[in-house]
Amino acid sequence: MMASADRHSNGASSRSRFSRHQFGNILRSRSSLLALLLLILVLPTDIIAEESVRRPNIVLVMADDLGIGDVGCYGNDTIRTPNIDRLASEGVKLTQHIAAAPLCTPSRASFMTGRYAVRSGMAGSGRVQVNLFLGGSGGLPPEETTFAKRLQQQGYTTGLVGKWHLGMSCERRGDHCHHPNQHGFSFFYGLPYTLLNDCVPGMGTDVLAGLQHLLRKMSVMLVVGIFTLVCVSACGLVDINLWLLAALISLSFLAIAVWYPAFGLISRWNCIIMRDQEVVEQPMTLEMLPYRMLTEAQRFVERNAHHPFLLFFSLAHVHTPLFRTPVYAGRSRHGCYGDDVEEMDWIVGEITKTVDSLGLANDTLMYFASDHGGHIESSRPLIGQMGGWNGIYRGGKGMGGWEGGIRVPGIFRWPGRLAAGRVVDEPTSLMDLYPTLKHLAGDTQPDRHLDGHNLMPLLEGTADRSEHEFMFHYCGSHLHAARWHPPDSDSIFKVHFVTPNFSPPGSVGCHDTQLCLCHGQHVTQHDPPLLYDLFRDPSELRPLGPDTEPRYREVLRRASEAADGHRRSLAGRQPEQLTWEKLLWKPWLQPCCGTFPFCGCKEDTR
């Protein structure tokens, strides 16, 4: 009986201990839950948001001189671009994506800073509108802010692979005041300048060809003249004043000294590859350049896959000289240019595969665009067309406000956020990338005056109107045109105050000079301005007048007032960087591997 009672007592005691243990667990779990709730209430909301919503990776791919009509999803049915088309089908396609300038240097400066290039001094007022030499002192000012710098401050790892073309040094070789590393890119591999014909023997020159020809001709004439005078004098036919002979010899040496060091060796000075701030190849060889750049871009993505990164993959395609890669030679129906576009599309596909294979697709915003329109004057008798096709749009590279030089492809893919197959017909700009990336990175710090707008409402479909009521179109630092998208209308009015004079007259383009100029006798000032409605006439073929457009006078007035207000907003802009004093070659600024002037090295690409 006692034993039974003891067993009963022990059982009760065990059940009692078990109940207290369970009760303690419940209390502890409730305490933990209460503590967690208190912690959530106490923690700053931005920390909670950062933990719950991972900031996206960013992959920006920009082609060089690609025409909007070269891409399948924008209407081309003879050049194959399946990988770019796939980005559009899986994301959002912009049909009115506008470059802030029709040339490389000012367009890329605007893209990087979210501001018209004239604000940063990267739009020239003279004959030349781009950086000419790596040994020049002009470039994107150190005081400017790029989207890479803003994202770097938010904890992003940032990299640029490919073309820069925004300057190198200011006062001495190696100060690198304009270098990508100084503008927010922690990693750089590629072309600090650009790809140009001078990089390939026999392709001619892109840099001040007229001046080069004049200096070369002057040098030859002086040398021949001096030799002739010496021979005549030696034969006793004429007495030559020694001072005159000395002056002619000095003049010939001066002409040679001006021409040959800067221009005769231009492929060695401009055609180089850098890794961060080290020159790794000088002069560069082009055969494997696309694959080397692709490999560097893929490796950057792979080694930064576990934390937010920004990659700007700035392609060398399809700027002249065109690549002649054996795998793609003869594959297209448009000669070497078409082959290059299809090779470029393959590169876009490979970087997309890298992102997807690492499981990053839903966490990565991918973007594809061109820096401006195709170069329609570029062609050679034996090769054919070497520049792009701008579809139905009039004009091309370097042609001020004409649509063909500034309307470019614009594609965003982000499967985790953006609906597939969406098309946005509202005006957008390359300058919009800066505020869009700032927004996605959670950067709410004050900024200077911006001309771009956050694109996410348009991309996600929460807004159906662009914030760009007015946009302004430059040729260098000269305002050529403005567009107005009235809030109460679908019309998009383009007002041309100035247009370039095509040469020869009656042609489409400036074939006599290979690139249209922006001012003086090279342009026509229109009074009254030319007016087009891009909604009804995207090819800009039928100028409107008071008899054909009811709002004619209102549009001209509003566009002129907006242009005046825009000019007033330029007060306090940076000094001009594209002056002759800053553009011309300075030996003491020239990047070099080895001992200057004996620069030369080859990168081990194994």
Polypeptide structure, described:
The protein has 606 residues and is of the alpha/beta class. It folds into two domains: 56-196 and 280-595, Alkaline Phosphatase, subunit A (3-Layer(aba) Sandwich), CATH 3.40.720; 209-264. 34% of the residues lie in helices and 17% in strands. It has 15 helices and 18 strands. Strand 14 (478-484) and strand 15 form a beta hairpin.
SSE blueprint:
Layout: H1 2-42, H2 45-52, E1 57-63, H3 82-89, E2 92-98, H4 104-113, H5 147-153, E3 157-163, E4 187-191, H6 209-234, H7 242-264, H8 266-270, E5 273-275, E6 278-281, H9 289-303, E7 309-314, H10 335-357, E8 364-370, E9 379-380, E10 384-385, H11 403-406, E11 407-413, E12 422-429, H12 433-440, H13 456-460, E13 470-475, E14 478-484, E15 493-500, E16 523-533, H14 552-568, H15 580-583, E17 594-595, E18 598-599
Parallel strand pairs: 1-7, 1-8, 2-12, 3-4, 3-7
Antiparallel strand pairs: 2-11, 4-5, 5-6, 8-11, 9-10, 13-14, 14-15, 15-16, 17-18
Helix pairs in contact: 6-7, 9-10
